[in-house]
Every structure is written in structure tokens, then in C-alpha cells.
Amino acid sequence: xxxxxxxxxxxxxxxxxxxxxxxxxxxxxxxxxxxxxxxxxxxxxxxxxxxxxxxxxxxxxxxxxxxxxxxxxxxxxxxxxxxxxxxxxxxxxxxxxx
Amino acid sequence: xxxxxxxxxxxxxxxxxxxxxxxxxxxxxxxxxxxxxxxxxxxxxxxxxxxxxxxxxxxxxxxxxxxxxxxxxxxxxxxxxxxxxxxxxxxxxxxxxxxxxxxxxxxxxxxxxxxxxxxxxxxxxxxxxxxxxxxxxxxxxxxxxxxxxxxxxxxxxxxxxxxxxxxxxxxxxxxxxxxxxxxxxxxxxxxxxxxxxxxxxxxxxxxxxxxxxxxxxxxxxxxxxxxxxxxxxxxxxxxxxxxxxxxxxxxxxxxxxxxxxxxxxxxxxxxxxxxxxxxxxxxxxxxxxxxxxxxxxxxxxxxxxxxxxxxxxxxxxxxxxxxxxxxxxxxxxxxxxxxxxxxxxxxxxxxxxxxxxxxxxxxxxxxxxxxxxxxxxxxxxxxxxxxxxxxxxxxxxxxxxxxxxxxxxxxxxxxxxxxxxxxxxxxxxxxxxxxxxxxxxxxxxxxxxxxxxxxxxxxxxxxxxxxxxxxxxxxxxxxxxxxx
Lengths: 98, 484
Known about the structure:
The complex is a heterodimer of chains A (98) and B (484). Chain A is mainly α and 98 residues long. In chain A, 35% of the residues lie in helices and 4% in strands. Chain A has three helices and two strands, in the order αααββ. In chain A, helix 1 crosses helix 2. The radius of gyration of chain A is 23 Å and the shape is flat. In chain A, 16% of the residues are buried. In chain B, strand 2, helix 4 and strand 3 form a beta-alpha-beta unit. The two termini of chain B are 14 Å apart. Chain B is globular and about 65 Å long. Chain B has two domains: 344 residues, Amidase signature (AS) domain (Amidase signature (AS) enzymes, Alpha-Beta Complex); 79 residues, no CATH class. Chain B is α/β, with parallel strands linked by helices. In chain B, helix 7 runs antiparallel to helix 16 and helix 10 crosses helix 12. An eleven-stranded mixed beta sheet of chain B has the order 1-3-2-4-6-5-10-11-9-7-8, sandwiched between helices.
């Protein structure tokens, strides 16, 4: 299956990755080759097979809803590239007027 | 002193023949002398190590005991260590200093272990050679022009080069077993759910598992005794009771043990010397009393395709958290979206971006059923193969890697060729069962070969026992790489 450069751009947009022109070309070829390879799975009839999302027989692991100590704010913020007023600081999400 | 195994060093520490400070210093000196060639460590922590060693000596002098008191170890740099940089081999976590310690590491510290440093890895554990590290490539101690395997190549090389007595790694599709094979050391990937992953920075959550390295199976068992078990902070860790893996090593001989030999693991393309060494190892097990049974795991050939859909899909979701907001450097481009994209585009390496792209595609509207869901269904078939096989046999023997260590740069241009070096380790990860890698010979170039042993889920003890009895009858694991 051939992945076009436009499709690669669309996937990169979904994945929030800024890619160079060269990367767009390389990934179009490499993703096409990998998808050609994995296409072998379509040979198998799996209509009656349930999917395995996890191998463990566990579901809904719960614990009592009790307050317990968590990281102090200054420790949680210590690795942030930008922090202010006990919060992570980011660029404006909405433009003015939106 | 650096030629002692972990178990031998522990005995000498306990009798007072050596101190932890001496043992730790010997390893730090060797790191100083050799690691400029091997490049196993991303960060060496000499001050912390000597502090922990002195504390261990003090505890022992006061009459205290602990299972790993004063033993110097290496930790793969994907496990969080409070106050010590943790990068996952990625530039996107450059300078990240975790505010807490992973449970597996904390358990080692509580058992008295000393940390020498953090070892190199392919970026976010994605790779089979350490060539995807954002920092540098680790070299194989047996031949410095060759890769050590990956992704836990730093841990494997450190143990092989006598720069640590043992190590932690992680295994998502073969990342402790394949480098152990290529470096001539022992590694165990435990069952999925056996070891807590709290503080392990996630790659593929339905597959990731913390594993152990040692120069002997007994050493690996000692580490497993400490890290295995339930953790309330990891909802995917199982409450299954943990046996004493060291005691279980000598729990009987191999008489009557049924060893399965799957025909699908001896395929065209395997290096003839690897096949010969693995078959000779199986003959040795037969000589020790095991019964060899030819078996079939018919869906083995699909494991590569299943893995390269499931793992990238899960990775694309897990790695969404790296956006330059809470940790790691930020590539500021003004607006929020441009900053996210620039940070991720520039700071993730080529393989990580390739897998995020592949995973994003496999999960995207219109393709989910054809790729991700299909892969999960075939995963069921692979898991069922093992369940049926274990009705006939007690363990399964196979090669770890189709070839011995390849040259640095040999496979970097062709991702599919690189992925094929994991072809024998992927299915055990998909099935969630334990896999052990044990040295079983050398090729004519003097490069190590590994035997892989699989057991049913949560039967690590059985697999370790078979590996241990094999090592009692062979001496491959006593050979030392031609270094310094």
C-alpha cells in the first residue's frame, strides 16, 4: 500500500510532529514498505477470534478513594521549561476574539 | 574483584573478605578506564554509589543483613531515579530529573543494592542496537565495531564488560533477551504483570516489562527475588505469589522435563552457527535427562507484523505526553501548536517519529479495524499457540536472535531489516510469557550466541531452573570479552 506524501503530512499533523521535506519523503517510502509487510495479516481469517488487548485476567482494578500525600507543587513544577504562579505556563490557546 | 559473579561477590561481602566500598570502587575504576570505548553508561553516579556502598558496609558492620547489601548494579535509563537524570536515551527528556524512584529500583535499594549509573538505550527503548539513542551508540565488548543489541544494550554491555555485577533492563519485544544474547550474558524477561512498572517511562503498555541481567542465571534469580511482586501503584501488576527463585534453582534435576523445539524458529536466514549452537544446547538438555519434543507454534511468522502494529499504536498514545510543557526542553515557536510540533519534531529521533507515525496511522479513522484490531486478533492466535504447546511440554527452547552481533551502521538504513533481528523474541512478549536468554556458544568470529527458554506465564522459576542446570553443565558464561 502506497502512502502518499499528503497522507504523511496528515498523519504528522495528527501526531503533532513538525517534519522536514526530507523526512516527509523518507517516511512516505518507509511507512509504505512497513504497511506492505504487515498486510500479510489480511491472509488470516480472524472473524471468529476475539482481540487480545491485555494478556492479564484483570479488569477494573480499584482502590479505596482515600486522600493521600502527592508531590508538592514545587517538586511537580521543578522540571517545567516555564512555570509561573504554581502552574505550568504555555502560550495562549485561543487567539483574542475567538 | 571485577570477575566475581554477583552471587560470589555477595558471599565475600558477607564473610567480610571484601567491603562494598572496595567492590564499588573497583567497578567505578573499570568504568573510568573502559567506558570511553564501550559507552554503556549515559550517566555514572560515583558519589551516590560510594555513599550507598559506605552505608551498606556500615549496616553490615552493625550486624544487619539484606539480600543485595552492597552489590553494585546498573539501571537502564528508562526507569525513574529520584534526583538522578533519566533521559530514555531521548533529547526530549534532556535534563529531566525525576521527583520519584521506580518501584523496581526502589526495591533494589531497599535490598541494599548500590547504583553505579544509568545505562544507554535506544530512544524510548525502540530499537535493537542502541543506534537509536539520542546520545551515542554503545559498543559490543566482544568486538567494539559491533552493536551490543538493544534496546537495553547499555545494561547488557555493562554486565558483559564487568562494569556492573548485574543490571535492570526493560523488554517490550526482546529488549533484554536480544542484547544479552549478543553480549554473552544472561537476561530474563519476566511474565507480563510479574514486576511493577511504576516509574518505568511507558513505551507500549500492553507489552513493556522490567527484566534483569546477570552473568549467571543464579545472579538473575537473585535480582528477580527482589523486584518481582505486586505493587499497588501499578494496576497491571499481578498479586500472584512470588516463589524464592534462588531456592528453586536446585529444586530437582532435568529428568523427565519436556522441552519443546518449535520448528518455526529454525528457518531460512538464521546464521548456521546460531542454529548449530542452539541445537547443541538442546542436545545438552537431553543429555541431562530432558525429553525433547518437536512442536509447532504455527502463527510465529505473524509476530513481527502484529508487534509492529500494536507497539507503535500504543507508543503513539504514550508519547503524546512529551510536548515541552511539564518536563524536558521546549522549542518555543510562538503559538501553542507550533511549539508542540517543533518540540516533538526536533527532539524525537527518526525511529521514534517513524513509530509514532505508524501508530497514529494504525489508529486513525478508517484504518483502526484493518490494522490495530486485526493485529490484536492475531495476537490472540499467537497466545493460543503457546497455551496449546504448554499442554505438551514444560519449557520451549529456541534461538534468541537469528544472528550474532552485527556491525554498527549495518542495518540503520533499513528499518524492516533491523526489526527482523527481534523475530524470535516478539511472540513471547505478545503472549506475556517469561523468556530467558542464556549464553550457549560462540561463532567463528568469537561472538556470543544465546539460547532462549520460554515457560508458561508466571513460571519464571521453572525457566530459571532449566537455565541454571544448563549452566552447571557448560562454561560458556565464564568466558570474558577481550577488553582491558
